[in-house]
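user: Kindly work through both lines:
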Amino acid sequence: MTTRRIVSEKTVLERDDKDFAPKAGEKSNITPAVPAHVIYKLLGFTFAMIVAPIGTYFLSVDTIFGGNSTWAGASAAIMANVVVIGYVIVAFQEDQSDALEAAEKEKESKKST
């Protein structure tokens, strides 16, 4: 058995730009979807994810491990994990600070009423 398709509704691709325009008297929302500080943090950790393991490998292969590439590779993998764990910790702290700010704003709004 097949289901019947409703032909009267427009798909997202068929809709005009008028459907997405703000109504008369309203201002359009032009704020970015992701704040800039989040993008900078992500770029920093991306750079660290590239530089830290590769740098660790090449610095440790001859100086620390005497040419043993297995141990140098293991230390590079450990550094990659350190960067990932650091990113997760920073993300959790940011999420908690956002929740605390929201709770503080809610508390202030209750006091003012």
Q: What stands out?
A: The two ends are 58 Å apart (CA to CA). The chain is about 65% helix and 0% strand.
